[in-house]
Design goal:
The chain is mainly α. It has 13 helices and no strands.
């Protein structure tokens, strides 16, 4: 029996090791390739260590091939999306959790679940015409607003789930002390809901940073492209320059890898939170 358990444990470890290698190897090829020369990659293979750890390829990608601009564009789109989505989601979660409204469950379904289920591709054509009619096409707001709406819906689902687990006596005690709904939300509930808010912010950051289809349609000007779109534009023009492509891919991926390393607990929690009311 012990041998059988040991066999299955070794088998599980072997499968996990294979999966880990399948994930790590592409990142290793990407990172190492950014420090090597084109001919060196072809001759010695993709996993050979660089002869010299030189940052000149990264410098070239940032200064000559607009990756510095792409990074700035990504930050200018991601930061307002995250902050505004958390602001609106917190208020809507409070309203859907503690305020008596007609058809509250139906309203919750429409504002959260439906908002999460509808993909950007499904509504891209009406979104394009809406942004064009508002004069926002080819501005950062054209990429921010659609992502904001979808992120706020998911964040509302997570934060509302947390609020629903709080005792109603918190609201009653605040009202007895003369606090307004605004004060109860921001002075009592929000400090307690920091785990849910951080989880929502972490997920929104990852999704917005890696967003591709919305900027592709809403930002035809290449100078406004975020990193994922800028990387595709770069690869379409400079496909043969492997080190430069690897440097651009590293610049795109590494910030989110670092972010995920610090916020992985919140991100994993967010993937399972909010499913149960």
């Amino acid at each position: 029996m012990n041998l059988r358990k040991m066999f299955f444990k070794l088998l599980i470890y072997l499968i996990l090791a294979i999966l880990a290698a399948a994930i790590i190897v592409p990142f290793a090829v990407m990172f190492l390739g950014a420090f090597r020369e084109h001919t060196d990659i072809i001759i010695r293979g993709p996993l050979a260590l660089p002869k010299i750890w030189d940052l000149s390829t990264f410098k070239k990608a940032v200064l000559e091939y607009n990756f510095g601009r792409y990074t700035l564009n990504t930050v200018l789109i991601t930061a307002p999306t995250v902050l505004l989505s958390l602001f609106f989601a917190t208020m809507s979660a409070y309203a859907l959790s503690f305020m008596d409204m007609a058809f509250q469950r139906l309203l919750t379904l429409v504002t959260t679940v439906v908002g999460v289920m509808i993909s950007a591709e499904f509504i891209m054509i009406p979104l394009y015409h809406l942004m064009n009619s508002m004069g926002l096409l080819d501005t950062y707001w054209a990429a921010i607003f659609p992502q904001l709406a979808m992120s706020a819906a998911f964040s509302t689902l997570i934060i509302r789930s947390f609020f629903r687990g709080l005792p109603a006596e918190l609201i009653d005690s605040g009202l007895v002390d003369g606090a307004s709904s605004w004060q109860i939300l921001w002075r009592i509930l929000v400090p307690m809901a920091k785990p849910a808010i951080i989880t929502s912010g972490a997920l929104t950051t990852v999704w917005t940073w890696n967003s591709y289809i919305i900027p592709l349609v809403m930002l035809p000007d290449p100078s406004k492209a975020p990193l994922p779109l800028g990387l595709i534009l770069f690869q379409g023009t400079y496909t043969v320059d492997i080190p430069l492509t690897m440097a651009g891919t590293t610049i795109t991926a590494v910030p989110m890898l670092i972010f995920y390393f610090f916020f992985q607990r919140h991100i994993i929690r967010g993937l399972s939170q909010g499913a149960v009311d």
